[in-house]
Fold this sequence. Notes:
Layout: H1 5-20, H2 38-52, H3 68-93, H4 101-136, H5 143-149, H6 151-167, H7 173-186, E1 189-190, E2 195-196, E3 201-203, E4 209-210, E5 215-216, E6 221-223, E7 227-229, E8 250-251, E9 256-257, E10 262-264, E11 268-269, E12 274-275, E13 280-281, E14 290-291
Parallel strand pairs: 1-4, 2-5, 3-6, 4-7, 5-8, 6-9, 7-10, 8-11, 9-12, 10-13, 12-14
Helix pairs in contact: 2-3, 2-7, 3-4, 4-6, 6-7
Amino acid sequence: MQTNYNAKIQKAVEQLVAMQLDGSLYHCNQDGEPNPSIEELREIISLCRTILFPGFFGDNSSVNTTTLPYHVGVNMERLFVKLSGQLYAGMCFDSDNNLSSAERKCAAKDMASCFIEKLPEIRGILTTDVDAIFCGDPAAKNSGEIILSYPGIKAIVNYRIAHCLLTLGANILIPRIITEMAHSETGIDIHPGATIGERFAIDHGTGIVVGETCIIGNNVKLYQGVTLGAKSFPTDENNNPIKGIPRHPILEDNVVVYAGATILGRVTIGKDSVIGGNTWVTHDVAAGSVVTI
């Protein structure tokens, strides 16, 4: 019996086309407009790391006090070009963006230049993060060990970059891809919309989840398996989840959350509190508290 392969293929094509034209899982590209590129964004993160931590990443064989301005300058120029391109691609991907192609390109360059202006600020806050991890981990021998090998700082670097881009107005897809890169590499899932203060320390890290509307103060430390999540999802009259409302925890300054703890909902963990391992917290915690099972 001879099988008509072409007929089966054609039938599958027709069915898939009919299904995808409903628009939910189908993206209609305009001619010549790019989509964001994961590979290009990976290169952008690599350039950011090279600029923020010169001598640790990239072509570091000839980085010294004399050549440092050259290395930073060259990588900065490459970053501006690549980031402008990806920000433009993000605008093209956004169906609600009504700017012309020329206006999008101009806006993307403006946004990229604003991001570059923020790099010294990002470097400054990352310095506090590295120091917090070093001071909190007796196994760490020096800052270079943390910068090169610790998953916590890798995730924090991606978050700081992604959060800055989001606040500058980048299409959410760009910062989400950046934080998901770190998520896939480290097992640490930090939404770029979260607000996180200085001296943020992650110890071990695997399995950590930080939700979109979390607010984390200064000098906060999270251990592996911590979830800062939402307790429930309010719905509208059509039973669809209401987006964008505050639904994740607030952690005030100097809070420590130990391994496996789950904190859900818009609750506040008061400053100087300690949340013990494997605890389940859904109510406010007063400042200076110790919560254990």
